[in-house]
């Protein structure tokens, strides 16, 4: 089953911490967003495998936008 990881704030993608196919554990940082000069990590909601990355570094994102698709491992 796929899990959508969404942005919790409007901001800019500062850094992508994972790659497609990478196994991650719950609470691992997937993406770092920058908003109002603050870095906001976006953690993995569960253990799983990164299946799709829908953003790239430097992209502007809106709150609730899908950033990463994960599959349970």
Structural class: mainly beta
| CATH fold field value | OB fold (Dihydrolipoamide Acetyltransferase, E2P)
What is the overall pLDDT average? 97
Morphology call: elongated
Tell me the name of the CATH homologous superfamily. RNA polymerase II/Efflux pump adaptor protein, barrel-sandwich hybrid domain
Counted beta strands: 8
Number of helices: 0
Neighbour order of strands in the largest sheet: 1-8-6-3
The name of the CATH architecture is Beta Barrel
The value of Rg in angstroms is 11 Å
What is the chain-wise order of helices and strands?
A: EEEEEEEE
Question: What is the rounded distance between the termini?
Answer: 10 Å
Q: Which stretches are poorly predicted, pLDDT < 50 over at least 5 residues?
A: none
- What top-tier CATH class fits best? Mainly Beta
The description of the largest β-sheet is: 4 strands, antiparallel
Helix content: under 10%
How many discrete structural domains?
A: 1
Explain what this protein looks like in three dimensions:
- This protein is mainly beta and 73 residues long.
- The strands form 2 sheets. The chain has a 4-stranded antiparallel sheet, with no helix packed on it. A 4-stranded antiparallel sheet has the order 5-4-2-7, with no helix packed on it.
- The chain is elongated, with a radius of gyration of 11 Å.
- Pfam families: Biotin_lipoyl (PF00364).
- This is Acetyl-CoA carboxylase biotin carboxyl carrier protein subunit.
């Amino acid at each position: 089953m796929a899990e959508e990881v969404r942005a919790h704030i409007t901001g800019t993608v500062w850094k992508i911490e994972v790659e497609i196919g990478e196994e991650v554990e719950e609470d691992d940082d997937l993406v770092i967003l920058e908003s109002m000069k603050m870095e906001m990590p976006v953690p993995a909601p569960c253990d799983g495998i990164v299946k799709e990355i829908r953003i790239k570094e430097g992209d502007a994102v809106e709150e609730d936008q899908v950033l990463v698709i994960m599959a349970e491992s």
